[in-house]
Each structure stands twice: as C-alpha cells, then as structure tokens.
Amino acid sequence: MLMLIKFGDTDVDIINVPIFVIDNAEKLQNEFFEWLSDRNNDHSYWMERDGQKKYGVNYRSDAFIEWLNAFPLKDKPEKAEFIAECVYKYNSKLPGLYF
C-alpha cells in the first residue's frame, strides 16, 4: 500500500509498504527514531562535525525503508520499497507520516 513520508507540506516521498506498517505507523515511526538516534547503532545516516561522528542524523525515506526491512519486516515476505522522492503533487488521502 502506498504511504506518504512527509518532510514538510511540499517535500514528500512515496513508499510502498505492507498493510502491517500502515496499521502500526506511529509506533513504528517512534521505534525508527529510537534506532536512528541510538549512538550504539552504526548506520550510514550519521553526520560528522569537527571530526565528531554521530553528531546528528541526515536521512530521507530510504532510512525508514532500510529499518523497516531489517527489523519489523525482517521475517515477513512483503518488504517496504521506495517509489518516488520529493514529490510535489500527490494524493493527500494516502496514509502518511511527518518526519
């Protein structure tokens, strides 16, 4: 099912996810944020500043998709997938999350 990942009202990505993700969207988003900001995780979304790694994070929907597929969807046959980035015209009735 298509889902909007909103980084603002005019900056939206579209992903395709199993209904499980739609039904648990807010809970999964919170778990994703915990994973993303946990300094013990060595993911590729950390930013550096003055040689200090893990200063902050920089991500788009690809990070959420990576996390969904690696953790909550790991043992499920359906996976999340990227559809479109920085879409300005979209169906506002689609389910979505603000990031």
Strand residues, percent: 25-35%
Q: Which structural class do the helices and strands define?
A: alpha+beta
Low-confidence segments, ≥5 residues, pLDDT <50? none
Helical fraction equals 25-40%
**Could you state the oligomeric state of the chains shown?**
single chain
Succession of helices and strands: EEHHEEHEE
Strands in their spatial order, largest beta sheet: 5-2-1-6
| Spatial separation of the terminal alpha carbons | 19 Å
The count of domains is 1
**Largest beta-sheet characterization:** 4 strands, mixed
Radius of gyration, whole Å: 14 Å
Q: Average pLDDT, to the nearest integer? A: 95
- Shape verdict: globular
What's the β-strand tally? Answer: 6
Number of helices: 3
Description of the structure:
With 99 residues, the protein is of the alpha+beta class. It has helices at 19-23, 25-37, 61-70; strands spanning 2-6, 12-16, 46-49, 52-57, 81-87, 96-98. Strands 5-2-1-6 form a four-stranded mixed sheet, with helices on one face. Strands 3-4 form a two-stranded antiparallel ribbon. Strand 1 and strand 2 form a beta hairpin. The longest helix has 13 residues, at 25-37. The relative contact order is 0.30.
